[in-house]
Design a protein that fits this description.
3 strands, elongated, three-stranded antiparallel sheet
């Protein structure tokens, strides 16, 4: 499959495997390596100007994240978008995040919530697309949950967030031209902070469940 060299950025220093993993992940999540696209190890190694061995190791890591499918021989396929996978990701998130949030709401400091409320307003900025805010969006949700999250909670949630990132970026990215979507995005996160301010576990758990259900519905509709 033909791909322009500009789709990936050349590797320079640090761990070659680590950098190759990060760069391939970035290109997949941004859609520059398209879902369903098949690439030989030789082609990917040429784009990154490195040897087969770090490419193979990087692809194995990405396969464990559900982003690629290794083929017999020397090629890999970018995992196709699968709406059943999207449902599964959100089913697991709904099982974990509301429970952690109910325990976290009493541990967050007022100044933490003030900072997160200010950050939520940026999500509503019209010039901010989903690809631009995703890292901040990830950090926002992690900050709400972190006081009650174990290291294993964070590992599992990070895996789920990464697995769902392509769906979120592509699905919500299609809504970015609509100014109302930006207002909704900012308000939805401000409402979440307001729920945490109540310090009521029931209110917080319900708010997180509703937030996840709303996002799943929007992503599913945009992708289907």
């Amino acid at each position: 499959m033909a791909t322009s060299r500009g789709a990936l950025q050349p590797i320079t220093s640090r761990s070659v495997v680590e950098q190759a993993t990060e760069e391939l992940r970035r290109a997949i999540l941004a859609g520059q390596l398209a879902p369903g696209g098949e690439y030989s190890l030789r082609e990917l190694a040429g784009m990154l100007d490195i040897s087969f061995i770090p490419i193979r190791e990087a692809l194995r890591s990405l396969e464990s994240e559900g982003l690629v499918i290794m083929r017999p021989g020397r090629s890999a396929v970018v995992a196709p978008l699968d709406l059943d996978d999207l449902r599964g990701i959100y089913r697991l998130r709904r099982a974990l995040e509301p429970d952690i949030a109910r325990r976290s709401c009493g541990l967050l400091r007022d100044e933490d919530l003030d900072r997160l409320e200010f950050q939520a307003t940026d999500f509503g900025a019209r010039e901010q697309g989903m690809a631009d805010i995703y890292d901040d969006h990830h950090a926002f949700h992690l900050a709400l949950l972190a006081p009650a999250a174990t290291a294993w909670d964070i590992r599992v949630l990070t895996t789920l967030w990464r697995a769902g990132e392509r769906y979120i970026r592509i699905g919500f990215g299609r809504l970015d031209p609509d100014p109302a979507e930006h207002e909704r995005r900012g308000q939805a996160h401000a409402d979440l902070v307001a729920a945490f301010r109540t310090r009521d576990p029931g209110t917080v758990g319900d708010a997180v469940e509703q937030h996840l259900a709303r996002n799943e519905k929007i992503a599913f509709s945009a992708l289907s």
